[in-house]
Amino acid sequence: MQNRAIPPRRLGGIRALTVLVGVLLGAGHAVAQAPGAGEGVIEGRVIAAESGKPAGDAFVSVPGLDASAVTAADGSFRLVVPAGTHDIVIEKSGFGAEEVRDVAVVAGQTVNTSASLKPQIEQVLVFGRGFIEGSEASALAIQQESKSVVEVVGMDEFTRLGDSNAADTLQRVTGLTVEQGKFVVIRGQPARYSSTLFNGSEMPSLDPIQTITPLDLFPSGVLSNISVQKAFTANRPGSFGAGQVQLQTSGLPAEDFLEVKLGTAVNFESIDSDPLEFNTGSDVWGDIDEDLFDIPFQIVQLQDANIPLATLSRADQVTLARAFTPELAPGYAAEGPDFNFQLNGGKRYDTDVATFGATAAFSYNQQIRTQDETRRVIRLAGLDTVDTRDEFLIDRTRLTTNMNGFVALTAERDEQELNFNFFWVRDTIERTEVAEGVSRLSDEEYQRRFLLELQQRQMLIEQINGSHNVFDLFNLSYRGMHADATRDLPDRRTYQLRNTAFDGSGLFFLDNDAPNLLRRWNAVDEETWSGGIDVSIPVSEHFFPDADFELTIDGGVNKESRDRASETRSFGFTTATTNRFQPVEQIFSFENLATDVTFSEFAGTADDYAADFDIEGSYVQTDMLMWDRLRLVIGMRFEEADFLVTTFEAGTAAGANQIQSGFIRRDDLPSFIGSYSITDDMQIRAGAARSLSYPSPIEISATTYIDPDSDERFQGNPDLEPVVIDSYDLRWEWYPTANEALTVGFFYKDMTDPIERSFSAVAGGGQVVTFVNAPTGEVIGVELNGRVGLDRLRELTGGPAWLPRFVDDMHFATNFTWQDSEVKLDPTGTAATNIKRRMTGQPEILANVQLGYTGPKHVITIAAGYTSDRLINAGIQGLPDEYIEPRISLGGKWSWTVIDPLTLSLELENVVNDAYQRKQGPIYTRSYKAGVTGALSLKWRFD
Q1: For residue range 203-238, what is the model confidence (pLDDT) as tens digits?
Q2: Less CB within 10 Å around the terminal CB: N or C of the chain?
Q3: 493 forms bridges with which residues in the sheet?
Q4: 907 contacts 893 by C-beta, under 8 angstroms
């Protein structure tokens, strides 16, 4: 006999009503009944898996027979059934359904069995969002019942694997990779081709370069599931690109609960190094000392009055220079372990009017990482040969403090639902770097470069969602969201020293290149307003009730307005002192600022930009089910976009030297998805659609920008056009049981004007990353995804005695993606070395393997992944393309329920510690190891 979870979708309304009536009447409590001729008895007991307590009022039935019972208070039940082999189904509100298979009954005899029920978050299917809350079984259910090609990861999975945020979870989804630990790459297309929805609404961005949302900011504790839709449908925003990530937060709790979690972690790469630090003035909560990092108010007053710094007297400039904080030299700090804290709670109120619920969560995480990185810049040394121009060893320390809070208020009554969501997150990152090595840009020099940086990302989301059945005529749903996102990079301090010897064996002195010290401020602010209304009319139910088909017509409108502004101020300090061997803080001391140091502002004609994006969309879509087998979803979306980006000179109140770029366009975007059910658990899908990918503000502005995470320089292209994407999908799906699935898919995308990253040469022999429209591009691939319970081994082998019982509680999951792409550039409009090549960011092979055990006390998971090489930057003027080398990941987690409310978890991440490496031609341009991380946590849950 086997216990197996069955999908929640199998639970029907009639059965639920039977359970309710049985409970109210007490009908199911083991009514004594004698078996007749040819009949036997099944007796057993049902318990709750987590608590071990009896599960009373559970509904027990035998499919295909008129035999059922409701468990007594002690969890016991009794069934009289014909002799033979039967399956038993056990269901109870608030728990996942269980199935006990192959119970052999002998006439005139009694057989005993038992089952345990695992708690399950109540499922809520929210119209118009395509999300479903619940376990792994419900995640597979939504994939099977979806209108499109969808991958869903339930809360059970990312809780079991110990994922701390959404980006960690998405690394294991078929056809996905995660760049920089936060940006999702879907089906090999760069992160710019992905978008993120938060409970159905478009998300703002906290990244200075890209408008996509960094998913490392969303802790797993506030999410009920994550869904990735890979095939466009008309009810989704037109800027679909490769796909959309949809984050669904927790809603109405199934029961009252309070959960506290404390954890710590150690990165073994970091503890082998001495961490650097400088005085940021930030406290344990990540609050920044504004006195240390704000631009001096005297300079702000000059800007407001439109007075250039250069017009001031020497004495006034000295006064302003002395207003800057003097600290410049990093020191070494004591190493400490990571620390994290989570508090989650929920309250449910069942009243005669409606059911009300509140869920709240707060988390705090502080993490320190120290890394050694080798970084090189190459140059042409001759025909088809390159050598190293710059080579530096970088000692880097990052201290990250993350806090977030989430509150959800929900009201439900019959088929009416209303939700209010509030989400706040703040990330403070302190980064200190010392790079030492050789630069051969003009002449061979041994240098030591210093970087002291603080950045803070913050976002506040206010959201309302509702869904209503209007007089049984149609369903109405609506959503509205306001979001504020800010990213501050205050007082980024950089300077460099030069050594008297070419090999670094001599004395270091302050480099005489002007400015000797550069201090930069940057702030990115984005405000988003969005809303939408959707209507669904069950046409066949109203007008063709006796027809052998079901027809629903959907329609809706939405509007999104996004205002984004970036402001940069750069100030230089140049010393005339002849004694450059003094400590740098002494050279730029209070006294020397009056005599030996010149203070000036470095302002380009396009340092700042302001972007206004307005998108209005409407759609109509039909959903027809014929013969209970064939489903056709056909839609058309109409979308208008108005993008305007204005770049201008920093520090000027009137915004001098303005350059405007952007576009206004209207697009008609058709979509088609057809699915045919070969059997009840097997189907095939086919789809075709047209979607878009809009350029980001930085991509179409004339701004030159530095990415604070990678230190890469970017140059926008005002002539960029949106990408038009024609997509085709074909997928076979098989769901043999609730927790098992096998899918095989094929996809193809034909792209017009794909936006690609490429190098661009600048004066002095340097290069920046820029963006270009390639005339055409295409992506083709095959995806395989499977999950199977190892209890099948017992079925296949006939249940040998040597096969351990714990195998029945194990599962094996894997996914594999092969993909290829090609971009063809215009040979007359580019300096690219290779006119025809892969798309940037696209690995040829992605593979993940997972082996797990879920028992009553222990949960063990081991996961491994592989990503093949991928292009990161296209070379120019004979320089080769730059690739990220293949990478292997391996990790595992063990959770032990010590006592009923207390769970202990141990986790290992990045066990292989495979190096992150970039290679350009024969030379490695970047190389570092992230290190193995060990984590320990304790969780206490109060129900």
Answers
A1: 777 666 666 777 777 777 677 778 888 889 999 999
A2: C
A3: 452, 519
A4: yes
List pLDDT tens digits, range 550-591: 999 999 999 999 998 888 888 888 888 777 888 888 888 888
In contact, 189 and 258? CB cutoff 8 Å = no
Report the 10 Å Cβ neighbour count for 92. 22
Helix or strand run (H / E) with residue 2: strand 2-5
List own/partner pairs for 899-904 with CB under 8 A and 24 or more apart: 900/50, 900/51, 900/52, 901/940, 901/941, 901/942, 901/943, 902/938, 902/939, 902/940, 903/938, 903/939, 903/940, 903/941, 904/936, 904/937, 904/938
Q: How far apart are CA 837 and CA 844, in angstroms?
A: 13
- Does residue 128 surpass a pLDDT of 50? no
List pLDDT tens digits, range 163-175.
667 777 776 676 6
Contact 415, 468 (CB under 8 A): yes
- Lowest-confidence region among 553-567, 654-668, 858-872: 654-668
Distance between CA atoms of 158 and 171, rounded to whole angstroms?
11
Q: Which has the closest alpha carbon to 492: 770, 705, 768, 213?
A: 705
Residue 732: both structure tokens together? 């076979």
CB 817 within 8 A of CB 175: yes
**pTM, two decimal places:** 0.77
**How many whole angstroms separate alpha carbon 133 and alpha carbon 419?**
14
Residues 6+ apart with CB under 8 A from 907: 162, 891, 892, 893, 894, 934, 935, 936, 937
Q: What is residue 650's predicted lDDT score, i.e. its pLDDT?
A: 62
* CA 699 to each of CA 192, 566, 656, 661, 878: distance values in angstroms, whole numbers, following the listed order: 10, 13, 21, 10, 24
E strand or H helix that includes residue 937: strand 933-942
Reported for 282-289, long-range contacts at CB under 8 A and 24+ positions apart, including other chains, are: 282/401, 282/428, 282/430, 282/454, 284/366, 284/401, 285/364, 285/401, 285/403, 286/401, 286/402, 286/403, 286/426, 286/427, 286/428, 286/456, 287/428, 288/428, 288/454, 288/456, 288/488, 288/490
CB distance 793 to 811 below 8 Å: no
Residue of 643, 639, 647, 645 whose CA lies nearest to 664: 643
Residues 50 and 119: beta-carbon distance below 8 Å: yes
Sequence-ordered strand ranges (E) for 656-722: 659-679, 682-693, 704-706, 713-715
What span, in angstroms and rounded, lies between the C-alpha atoms of 846 and 781? 11
Please report the DSSP string for 861-905 in residue order.
Answer: EEEEEEE--EEEEB-BTTPPPEEEPPEEEEEEEEEEEEETTEEEE
Query: In this structure, are residues 279 and 453 in contact, taking their beta carbons and an 8 Å threshold?
Result: no
Q: CA-CA distance, 157 to 568, in Å (whole number)?
A: 42
C-alpha 609/C-alpha 655 separation (Å) is 9
